[in-house]
Amino acid sequence: MSDAKNIILQAASELFLEGGTSALSVRAISKRAGVSTIGIYSHFKGKQGILDELYIEGFEKVFLAMDILDINAPARDVILNGVKGYLTVADQYEAHYRLIFGESDAGYSPSEDARAIAKKAFKKLIDVSSLILPEDTKPTEKRRIALEIWAFIHGYVSLKHHAISTFISPSQWNRLALSALATHIDAIIAKYAVHILK
Amino acid sequence: MSDAKNIILQAASELFLEGGTSALSVRAISKRAGVSTIGIYSHFKGKQGILDELYIEGFEKVFLAMDILDINAPARDVILNGVKGYLTVADQYEAHYRLIFGESDAGYSPSEDARAIAKKAFKKLIDVSSLILPEDTKPTEKRRIALEIWAFIHGYVSLKHHAISTFISPSQWNRLALSALATHIDAIIAKYAVHILK
DNA sequence: AGCTAATCATAACACTGTTATGTAAGTCAA
DNA sequence: TTGACTTACATAACAGTGTTATGATTAGCT
């Protein structure tokens, strides 16, 4: 990657972290990067290209957050730890998170490359959440369970961002999300245990 | 409400349903309504005012969707029916839903009046979801459970809107959401049953 | 060296929400 | 009816947005 490209991306990332999408205008980026506005078009595919990079950056953070250190811990704890990491990233990189879930720029839609990273992250989630399932569980079933967990936890993050939700503090939100998910995971485990016993 | 005000709002609502926020420019509204752009500012508080009206419109749809017809049915079914209505509204008025959850216009934030309607809808959700809880459950506990249900189901709707989620059809999404929620509700009921038995 | 392709700057285009200015219409009291 | 005052509307402009056409400059390669 060339110098100018790096400088532009750095400027964009800074502005994005500071003020979200509203602070991310082509002119603001070029001004901070010390280049002309045309630089965003010669090095990236316009603003879409910049947003794509930030989208990928966001999903990479999510991907790393799900990294599991203690592979020997009980499956239930491994998942909850992964989710804890997910929630931390969602807090720390809120602008990225909002971009990923279309909460910041209605006009933006991710490119093929960006979608590929997103799918990679989802596959990792499937791997992690499958730990509570029997090994011979069908792929579609594994995906279904991963989706349940993702929907649940993302629902909490998204509601936290909602304007109505001021009566609950951010840290309390994360605790609520984790305890609710624990309940749900236990329910899933119990269901499969019964299934095995039969 | 005056004539011009109604005409403007009608035009805005139509454009919104047709093309979402991106189709909702002040000039487009005024053009369709047959008035000058200044009309949006004399009858509403600019674009914010228009979005506020649509925000309220959206939450009223959600509110109505949770109306329960069969009050004598089992609590579990009453909730699932209410959620089914919620999902239908989310599909039918996708633009409104996205606006409500900040997925369409990053600049918009609802007024006090709009927030009030949102709180009213949430209170209704608390009432409905409390049906599976013992009558003497504390208000904060009731709220916590309502939040669990809302987060779960909204998480599914939000993921459905996500770009990565093309591998699942819309109707399938709703089925997945409902069955996952059923699992979760049963888990909650079981938990409270144990609590009572002790 | 000479040619080609990429990089950059200026300025402009078509859009956005908003507002200052001016005009016309309606309202109400003397 | 007349005069004063408020409201409704229109035109045009302002400051911002993403994008691009036109040139100029630079870099890489034959």
For this entry, give a set of tags.
homodimer; DNA-binding; 198 residues; 9 helices; mainly alpha; 73% helix
Descriptive notes:
Two copies of one chain form a homodimer. With 198 residues, chain A is mostly helical. Helices cover 73% and strands 0% of the residues of chain A. Chain A has helices spanning 3-19, 26-33, 39-43, 46-65, 75-92, 94-100, 112-129, 139-161, 170-197. In chain A, helix 4 (46-65) runs antiparallel to helix 5 and helix 4 (46-65) crosses helix 6. Chain A is elongated and about 65 Å long. The mean pLDDT of chain A is 92. Chain A binds a DNA duplex (30 and 30 nucleotides) through helix 3.
Q: Any low-confidence stretches of chain A, pLDDT <50, length ≥5?
A: none
Query: For the report, how would you describe the main beta sheet of chain A?
Result: none
The topology string of helices and strands of chain A comes to HHHHHHHHH
Oligomer: homodimer
Strand portion of chain A, in percent? Answer: under 5%
Number of helices of chain A: 9
Rough outline of chain A: elongated
Q: Please state the average pLDDT score of chain A.
A: 92
Separation, N- and C-terminal Cα atoms of chain A: 58 Å
* Strand count of chain A: 0
Helix content of chain A: over 70%
Rg of chain A is 19 Å
